[in-house]
Design a protein that fits this description.
Blueprint: E1 15-25, H1 32-45, E2 50-54, H2 62-66, E3 73-75, E4 78-80, E5 82-83, E6 89-91, H3 108-120, E7 125-133, H4 140-146, E8 153-158, H5 164-177, E9 182-187, E10 192-193, E11 200-201, H6 209-216, E12 220-223, H7 228-235, H8 248-254
Helix pairs in contact: 3-4
This protein binds adenosine-5'-diphosphate (ADP).
């Protein structure tokens, strides 16, 4: 690949990372961080060493979702990633701030610089699958991050209330610009199963994502329901306790690339 990857800086000398997968969305709040977390949990449960690079610098939520409170260690310019209770390696700007409630008000280039440092200065060690929680949207910040990391592929997270068609198209074009394959679509908050009658309700309207997946020839790999247990697990930092293989097909697909 002679694309922009040739401009990338090498990873830290203590890192052996086999695959890097970016998780993107058209806007905030569709569940990009949740899907990133579930992917890492699913891989870790299969005996692969998973890692999460939280590139959502202005809205970092990965440490909270996993209940990681202890900051990452910094030793002579090198950063040791934090570990979740099930040993997923994590780095996030929140794990480097003295006070987790400090806002990060950086602009694109500084964000790109921070993400690049997560690649060059973090001693990741052995990692089978690194998932990158990308900044939301397809604007300049997302573009900068795209160009700061050697992504092997991206996963697009949508929800039925999005302008899904436009988002998918933008994501596909952005990925083409940097020669990165779109591995699949994940529709989050796709439906709600009524706990008393068992019927599925399309709260945000009927999904268009199947039609899009066919039109763009990108596999629709998972449709995740609205599930209060997921929201609660994220809120309480207990995502590793969640039962249910929401992304089994996606994870199986990733193992083939
Ligand atoms: P993003 O990273 O796209 O901004 P998050 O993953 O942080 O979105 O999710 C936004 C909020 O929605 C979180 O509070 C999360 O717990 C909740 N959420 C996401 N997906 C679901 C779901 N399928 N069911 C219930 N709550 C969800």
């Amino acid at each position: 690949n002679q694309g922009p990857k040739s401009f990338l800086k090498p990873a830290n000398k203590h890192s052996k990372i086999k695959k890097v997968i970016g998780v993107i969305s058209g806007k905030g709040g569709v569940g990009k961080s949740l899907v990133t977390s579930l992917l890492a949990v699913a891989m870790q449960e299969r005996g692969r060493q998973a890692a999460i690079l939280d590139a959502d610098i202005t809205g970092p939520s990965i440490p909270h979702i996993f209940g990681v409170e202890k900051n990452a260690e910094v030793l002579h310019q090198e950063i040791i990633p934090a570990l979740t209770d099930n040993k997923i390696k994590v780095i996030s700007i929140n794990l480097l701030l003295a006070d987790h409630t400090d806002p990060v008000v950086w602009r694109g280039p500084m964000i790109g610089g921070a993400v690049e440092q997560f690649w060059t200065d973090v001693c990741w060690g052995d990692v089978d699958y690194m998932f990158v929680d990308m900044p939301p949207g397809t604007g300049d910040v997302a573009q900068t991050v795209f160009q700061s990391l050697p992504l092997d592929g991206i996963i697009v997270v949508t929800s039925p209330q999005d302008l899904v068609g436009m988002i998918v198209e933008k994501a596909v074009k952005m990925a083409e610009m940097v020669h990165i394959p779109v591995l699949g679509l994940v529709e989050n908050m796709a439906y709600f199963t009524c706990p008393s009658c068992g019927e599925k309700h399309a709260i945000f309207g009927e999904s268009q994502v199947k039609a899009l997946s066919e039109a763009y020839n990108i596999p629709l790999i998972a449709q995740i329901p609205i599930n209060p247990a997921l929201a609660q697990a994220c809120d309480q930092g207990k995502i590793t306790d969640i039962e249910g293989d929401w992304l089994a097909e996606l994870v199986a697909g990733l193992e083939k690339i």
